[in-house]
Amino acid sequence: MAQLSTAVSDLVLAVTAFSVSLLTLSSNSLFSLGMSLQGLAASVGVLKFGQSQPSGWVVKAHHALAWITTVVGLALMSSGVHFNQGSTRLAQGLLITTAVFTLSVKFMAADTKTLLTKSLSGFSLLSLLFLFVINWNMFGITACALYILSGSAVGSSGYWSGIPRVDILHYGLALGNLSFQWASL
Fold first, then answer.
1. What band does 1 get if pLDDT is binned at 50, 70 and 90?
2. Residue 95, beta-bridge partner list
3. Are 14 and 46 in contact (CB under 8 A)?
4. How far apart are CA 70 and CA 75, in angstroms?
5. In degrees, to the nearest 5, what angle opens at C-alpha 127 toward C-alphas 121 and 132?
6. Tally of structural domains, the chain
7. How many CA within 13 A on the CB side of residue 171?
8. Taking burial as the number of CB atoms within 10 A of a residue's CB, which of 22, 62, 97, 124 is the most buried?
9. Are 24 and 31 in contact (CB under 8 A)?
10. pLDDT tens digits, 119-159
11. How many whole angstroms separate alpha carbon 151 and alpha carbon 180?
């Protein structure tokens, strides 16, 4: 059975991610690339959730792209902003750590992979939030808060008041994307 509400929420997420990616391409290519990864993952999600029986490659591709977006996409977005703000060492460290983790993840136990995924994505967002607070960038603060609340408080499993949590996650991230757009990255 197709989960059409999730296909729609993934479509909204894809549109906002690709829009923000295009709008930030000339000013922040790393941030734009991270947003493009999110748009790609959400686009494959539209295929996955829009079909009653998606093919195995669509399910695997969506799972892989969602993970890549969580780790690599957020690191690219965060590093792009840090580079633009002059925090070169932090941006480089984040990119190197993410690259090492991504290349070594196949050799990790599942619980270690989960812990490091949450740690890296959390650090990417918290370092951005810290930067936006220091610069009193309300749109940046709002974007980070929406990402953090959507990912940790809402999550993607189960239902909340009859609404699939994954849909709330997608809409929260989409609103966060719009806030990032207005944050003048």
1. low
2. none
3. yes
4. 8
5. 125
6. 1
7. 11
8. 124
9. yes
10. 999 999 999 999 999 999 999 999 999 999 999 888 888 89
11. 16
Strand 159-160 relative to strand 163-164, pairing: antiparallel
Which residue is listed with tokens 């840090």?
Answer: 82
Token pair of 110 as six digits: 């599942």
- Read out DSSP for the chain? ---HHHHHHHHHHHHHHHHHHHHHTTT-HHHHHHHHHHHHHHHHHHHHHTSSS--HHHHHHHHHHHHHIIIIIHHHHHHHHHHHTT-HHHHHHHHHHHHHHHHHGGGS-HHHHHHHHHHHHHHHHHHHHHHHHHTT-HHHHHHHHHHHIIIIII-SSSEETTEEHHHHHHHHHHHHHHHHHHT--
One-letter amino acid at 87 equals S
Question: Look-up: residue for tokens 């196949």?
Answer: 106
Q: How far apart are the first and last CA of the chain?
A: 41
For residue 75, count CB atoms less than 10 angstroms from its CB and return exposed for 0-12, middle for 13-18, buried for 19 or more. buried
CA distance 101 to 117: 9
Predicted TM-score (pTM) of the model is 0.94
